[in-house]
Amino acid sequence: MSSRHRIVLAVNDVTVEREVESRLLLADFLREELELRGTHVGCEHGVCGACTVLVDGQPVRSCLMFAVQAAGTRIMTVEGLTRGDELHPLQEAFWEAHALQCGFCTPGILMTIYHLLQEGAGLEDEGEIRRALSGNLCRCTGYQNIVDAVRIASRHNDAVKMAGEGC
Amino acid sequence: MGGRSGSGAEVDAGAIWVGQRLKRREDPELLTGKGRFIGDLTRPGMVHAAFLRSPHAHAKILSIDARPALEIPRVVGVLTSHDLPPNLGAQPVTHVFTDRNTPNYALARDRVRYVGEPVAVVAAESPYIAEDALDRIRVEWEPLPAVSDVEAALRPGAARLYDDWPDNVAGTFRAEMGDVDGALAQADVVVTERFRIQRQFACPLEPRGVLAEWDPHRGELVLWSSSQILHIARDCLAEVLKIPEHRIRVLVPRVGGAFGCKFHFYAEEVAVALLARTVGRPVRWLEDRLESFVATVHAREQVVHATMAARRDGTITAVTAQIDGDMGAHLHTVSYGPVWLTSVMITNVYQIPNARVHTRAVVTNKTPLGSYRGWGQPQANFVVERLVDRVAHELQQDPAEIRRRNFIPPERFPYKSLHHTFDSGRYAACLDLGLERLDYRGWRARQAQARREGRYIGIGFSFYVENTALGPSRMLNAGGVKQGGYDIARVRMEPGGEVTVYTGLCEMGQGFTNGMAQMCAQTLGVHPDHVTIVTGDTQSCPYTGYGTGASRSAAVGGAAVMKSSQRLREKISAIAAHMLEASADDLVMAAGHIQVKGAPTRAITMADVGRAGYLRPIELPPGMDPGLEVIEVFDPPQMAWPYGVNIAVVEVDAQTGEVKFLDYVVAHDSGTVLNPMIVDGQIHGGVAQGIGAALLEDLPYDENGQPLARTFMDYLIPTAADLPRFRLGHTVTPSPIIPGGMKGVGEAGIIGPPAAIVNAVEDALRPFGVKFTETPITPERILAAVDGAGIGAVSSQRR
Amino acid sequence: MKPAPFEYHAPATLGEALRLLSEAGDDGKLLAGGQSLVPLLNMRVLRPSALIDLNGVPELRVVKTSDGNGLSLGAMVRQRTLERDPLIRERVPLLSEAAALIGHMQIRTRGTLGGSLVHADPAAELPAAVTALSARLTVRGPSGVRTLSSEEFFIGPLTTALAPGEVLVDVLFPPLPPGTGWAFVELTRRHGDFAIVGAAALAHLDGAGRVDFASMALCGTGGTPYASPWLGDVLHGERPRAELIQEVGRRLSESVEPDGDIHASAGYRRKVAGVIGTRALALALDRAQGPHRAEVA
């Protein structure tokens, strides 16, 4: 009673082609089919945000999409943030600010903030940053250092933008 | 910790690592998504497990037929209690406080006692198919009456969970000191209250998981578990499966948070191991979120009737408490340890000479209760700090000052409390730091002004002391704990001069390996980057007496590492002295070099020593054995007692009951700080959970024992937008009994917030004269209290 | 929490979607944003045998202006678009303000206008907003096209008047008089949670500063949005003033018949319905009063 579908999509700028069962969640596709295990599954009902990835540039809960729906899309996961061995400035900011403890929620938060910085969000005001983070649950850090990391990254992003390059 | 310790080379005081805000070594891996959590591990041929769980709070299992599940293609095996080996042991309890047993096994035998109890387990080639298979398992149930809270369970004639018990009381505990009745009779003020602390869930973002694989030729089990208790898990597996420990290897991968709930040994660990043996393939089970709310231990739930007595001048003379802990359906790994801890912490930081506690651990048809950060201390703190505020209000004394008056003063340490001996403390200094950081006078002025404007601002205090560095082994054993409290560390210098440390403690995000590396590096005069900490494998890591919890990693684990490192340094020193033809006392170790003081050209590297130690023993002093590996044990002579104050400033919307934070200060002392960034992070995280406990989190059950909170939409943990910025202050009073002076800090943050916040809300609503005795204080409860106070709704400006 | 098996279909036209839906019968479900549906599938609360994905049907995403300053929005317009699109913010700012409060940004990137309306959660913001806005909902099915008012569309908790085989196609928002003030205010346990109670309010003042148009709808106060039918009687011809707004609040509390759940009892919702309603109305009136209208946040 299930259907199988051939899908072609780009994940972190690499084209992939697979056959998937209709009910396979995008999160499980990324993790098990493509072995991109940085995207984590914390709830499977769309609340915790650990599974956040970018689909056509938009942050999405990959536990609430089916892999078959991702056909023809461009997906970015946390693995797409690093270039070679170099950490992305956003990751550097998190490292500097001790903005992670167990690291389980971290990839989802990185993708959310990466998206907002890409869009040009200022992310300076404490309240604004906290609201931006409110769709990602963290149980370890109490969020304070994450707020600080976002501010550091945002300032870096502004500086880099002013120098004429993107984040 | 530079300078000398024992004989041998000095470590250059310029290379102080302890106390440095070093970035964490594990972060690049975690930030790039490369951390390998249990859900990331795969083994060739691995299949996936799913559990069938009881939908009833209390029922007999009349029959169970799992064979239809095997008809689904790609389902490879299923187990029910019929398939359990006849000699399978019951799930162990490592904290034994009572004679009454609540035997429970990997899968329920003929009766279930809580919604979520595992009944069958199926293995299939995908987790999707495994769940499909669950639908095919046929169970015939005979529901039984259920008791869903302590009061119902204690009623005469209540349905009993265990037929061989006369009631639903698993155990009791009593302790007393001084002359309580005399103090009550002579008191000027006596306040009595019934408190209820709600059921909570540690709720790590990563649920549990187990991966089991057998080597059929050797009959050996390899089990990965998202766990805090490496060796204890192995011991439990050996006990339950009846195979020797050396045939079991337990590994702990990266853990996505634990907070105590992974400190337990679970039925699923055994069931998955058995299933793997049956199907002859590795089996992995990943708990899903829906399951986690019924399958992983809950925490905290207690009803406490307490009384506090004081003299007119504010001196507290007595405290009593009747504590009823809601244990759920059976005594889990740590039994009612948390409830016991609540009772013995009932005098908190105060020199109250008269105290009496009577504690009951009560079974109910709910998920078993277990460990959660703080164990039983948040409840004790809530009760005592609320009563202190009540007394302050009765006597019209300032809540900070009444606490100060009753603190155990520095000169009375070591101080024998109701059960424990507190090692050291400068409580007043810590309170002063908190008051100053807060600008207490400023806030009182702003509060008065706000009241004139019809707004409700409140300030609430909670002072806590916390049990860490668990603990002296003999004391634990005497208390019924079937584990020691020591830790063993192995420190090895490699031939190339790098250092490897092996510890039985497990990382779950707290980052203790960093502080440990800093301490080792400082002791040996190398850079922390040259120190590797190995954790998470029973095959290579030394035995940890108690496991990773009870705020003991830095204090006990760290002390063991320090002892080993110091002894290793002595050997390195002696080798270097011989190689440099100098006296060991004339040497300085720094930055991986050892040189003669004042003669920089007379120096060798750690690699030179390493080579001598392993490859060229001819260079060693005569009579010295090769090798540069040391094992040391640290068994703490006592526990260590960090402390602190939480001060919450809130504003309450009297029309909706909503609470907003205006300020939140924590001043705190956890002894020597290894890495201040990590210490602060632990406090932030703990306070956030404490705020969740005060305002948001709850696991209610209906009267039939059905859980009402099953998802993240029901169980509300704080988001970034719900929390204030925490302003932290530290004092440092090194522990006199822990080498290095560290006290623990892992649980510190979570103890104070409920009392501080409820005190603050009551303070804000003082004009209404309302009282709160239960957490969480939801907007509904707050509004009901305000409305019930008989004063009409006050129109306030919404900001 | 993995879903039970289903057949997946991705039609490219509305006609094809209708045909597939018809064939699937009772056992078929339409997939819009998935933010409400997929959790139910993952929890196996729902087990449709067929899932018909509307995300690939362009005709359902159309945004077009209509008579005067009205606006027609396709059912599959994303909530994030409702929140941020300049045309929508200008023409139907109440809708934008309501949409901004739906869950979190990552929900709104997939969630849709139509999905929320058809799911008809009593706590949802959009049903209340479209009710206050007197929107007309266009529905198409095997027996043709029909248009419904909100009152006709929302008939019970999680229940709409959609007949088997019917699809919500678009929502038409009639033009509002220039200078209409709006507000959506809600009470939640945490930022981004479902509303305990929410209120959508619109108000317009005539040249003399008296109310000549007002509309309110509440969510979280019963199975369907509560549209206060007596509002006009209380407010028309009156100048905005505190006692008047308080009166509206009192009547709201008296009139609604909410249900309770673990987050809030019926009694609490009843009480705060009045509080939230007054705050929304006050803000809408404030925004209606002249050139200093607040911007949507």
Helix segment count of chain A?
5
**What's the rounded overall pLDDT mean of chain B?**
94
What is the chains' assembly state? Answer: heterotrimer
Main sheet strand line-up of chain B:
4-6-2-13-10-11-12
Main beta sheet of chain A: 5 strands, mixed
CATH topology of the domain at 407-468 and 639-799 in chain B: Aldehyde Oxidoreductase, domain 4
Return the CATH topology of the largest domain in chain A. Ubiquitin-like (UB roll)
Provide a compact summary of the structure.
With 799 residues, chain B is of the alpha+beta class. Chain B has 20 helices and 29 strands. Chain B is globular.
Question: What do these coordinates show?
Answer:
The complex is a heterotrimer of chains A (167), B (799) and C (297). Chain A has 167 residues and is of the alpha+beta class. Chain A has five helices and five strands, in the order ββαβββαααα. Chain A folds into two domains: 77 residues, Ubiquitin-like (UB roll), CATH 3.10.20.30; 74 residues, [2Fe-2S]-binding domain (DNA polymerase, domain 1, Orthogonal Bundle), CATH 1.10.150. The longest helix of chain A has 19 residues. The radius of gyration of chain A is 16 Å and the shape is globular. Among the domains of chain B are: 183 residues, Aldehyde oxidase/xanthine dehydrogenase, molybdopterin binding domain (Aldehyde Oxidoreductase, domain 4, 2-Layer Sandwich), CATH 3.30.365; 223 residues, Aldehyde Oxidoreductase, domain 4. In chain B, a hairpin with a 4-residue loop joins β17 and β18. The N terminus and C terminus of chain B are likely disordered. The longest helix of chain C has 23 residues. In chain C, strands 4-5-10-6-7 form a five-stranded antiparallel sheet. Chain C has a four-stranded antiparallel sheet with strand order 11-12-13-14. In chain C, 34% of the residues lie in helices and 23% in strands. Chain C folds into three domains: 47 residues, 2-Layer Sandwich (Uridine Diphospho-n-acetylenolpyruvylglucosamine Reductase, domain 2), CATH 3.30.43.10; 114 residues, Uridine Diphospho-n-acetylenolpyruvylglucosamine Reductase, domain 3, CATH 3.30.465.10; 109 residues, CO dehydrogenase flavoprotein, C-terminal domain (Enolase-like, domain 1), CATH 3.30.390. The two termini of chain C are 37 Å apart. In chain C, a hairpin with a 5-residue loop joins β4 and β5. The interface between A and B is large, with 57 and 57 residues.
